[in-house]
Amino acid sequence: MAAPSTTLFGMPVERGRWVFVLLGLAINLAIGSIYAWSVFRKPLEKVFAVGATESLLPFVVFLAVFALTMPLVGGLLDRYGPRLLSVAGGVIVGAGWLLGSQATSMTMLTLAYGLIGGAGVGIVYNCPIAVAARWFPDRRGFAVGAAVLGFGLSPLLTAPLANALIASIGPLATMAYVGVGALVVIVLLGLPLRFPPAGWAPADWAPTAAQAGASELTRAEMVRTGAFWGLWLCFFIGTVAGLMAIGIAAPVGQEVFLLSAATAAALVGVFAIFNGAGRPLFGALVDRFGTRRTAIGNLGLIAAAALLLWAGSAGGGWSVYIIGFATLWLCLGGWLAIAPACTAAYCGTRHYSPNYGLVFTAYGMGAIVGNLLAGTLRDVVGSYTAVFLPVAGLALLGVGIAVLLLRPPFGAA
User: Could you give the 3-state DSSP secondary structure of residue 213?
Assistant: First the structure.
């Protein structure tokens, strides 16, 4: 089916569709401000007189609600479209930050920021991904990866800005400014989002034989395939390793590799670049080599990085630290491109939104398990070094799962 117009955003459709990728990148910059939570923790601990565990609670609840909301609203995205859900989700995201700024206790902050804000991000997050997946059947992996690039890069912008505001006006007032900014950006940039006409494809592109024969699976059909469970488990393992790396990067640099606090903090900013770059990079690899081989390569890199950090913790120096953690952050970013691209390739795009929403619960479970595992191992053993061998083992288990289960169901691409 041809597009109803020969232009999109004033350009030929094949060029104009890239504007949707840019809009998705910018929207993800706004919602990715959740990764800047670490700069709020210490100031909030002073405001509410709480410890490290309590200050982490809003972030953990946020991630859990974010992941759980995705499958709940997936069907609504297909029914009402990305524009309406982006606007509604943007309002809810802003409300979460703004209500959090009025909190008088950490419990109230957890409910406002974690519950309301997390639900808002869960509504918004899938919109630009679904738009990119449908407008780019020819370069789906790269387009989706580029759209979610902003989620990984967001801390580079939002963390320094929030830190400066916190020093000037305090953490609660800063949350209000972040909320207003997120609301405005998400709502305005969500208004142009829309899906292509049914059956639309680029003029000079034809699907491969495997793609042409791919099945359009409903959520109920998807969960009965080994490919779904293989993808879910691999995504879960990649998230456990990646979010553990995000959570412990700075303390490992100081405690294990004896870096100064300033150096470790600066390197976290560098690692964020790798996290963002992993999304379009692994998305492009999916387009080139397919989801299964890309997933196996990603998990193999996680295992190698974890083993390098474990072996190098006895005096490997700063180079081991940088290489190991840069690789872990890169691979986490990669899964946020591999998983949506694999969902679309294996299960089609007709039911993509509810399907990927269910797949994304692996991210939420990985966030909870990864953070708890890192903290528990540190407390029990007394060193973050104990984290790396379990991560390597999980990654190697993931390679085996990918080999056995991550195969296209019913002739999908």
Answer: coil
Residue 212 confidence (pLDDT) above 60: no
Cβ-contact 363, 67 below 8 angstroms: yes
| Token pair belonging to 124 | 């918004």
What number of other Cβ atoms are within 10 A of residue 156's Cβ? 19
Angstrom distance (rounded) from CA 165 to CA 167 = 5
pLDDT tens track for 287-301: 889 889 999 999 999
In one-letter notation, the amino acid at residue 235 is F
Instruction: Point out the least confidently predicted range of 13-27, 46-60, 190-204.
Output: 46-60
CATH architecture assignment, domain 7-190: Up-down Bundle (1.20)
Pairing between β-strand 11-12 and β-strand 7-8 as defined by DSSP bridges: antiparallel
Give start-end residues of each CATH 1.20.1250.20 domain in the chain: 7-190, 213-411
Give the model's confidence band at 370: pLDDT under 50 very low, under 70 low, under 90 confident, else very high: confident
- The helix/strand/coil state of 41 is helix
Residue-level pLDDT at 75:
81
CATH number of 213-411: 1.20.1250.20
Alpha-carbon span 196 to 136, nearest angstrom: 10
Specify whether the CB–CB gap between 190 and 198 falls below 8 A.
no
- Does residue 77 contact residue 127 with C-beta atoms inside 8 Å? yes
CA distance 164 to 173: 12
What is the tens place of the pLDDT at every residue in 375-402? 777 777 777 777 888 889 999 999 999 9
Average pLDDT over residues 354-377: 82
- Amino acid 413: pLDDT: 41
Q: Which residue has the higher pLDDT, 204 or 275?
A: 275
DSSP codes of every residue in 162-204? HHHHHHHH-HHHHHHHHHHHHHHHHHHHHTT--PPPTT---TT
The tokens describing 170, both together, are: 């305090």
SS3 103: coil
Q: How far, in Å, are 89, 107, 255 from residue 122 at the CA level?
A: 8, 21, 35
The encoded tokens of residue 68 equal: 């759980």
| Sign of the four-CA dihedral 42, 45, 50, 56 | negative
> What's phi and psi for 7, nearest 5 deg?
-130, 155
Q: With the C-alpha atoms ordered 379, 298, 282, 325, is the resulting torsion angle positive or negative?
A: positive
Backbone angles phi, psi at 138, to 5 degrees: -85, -30
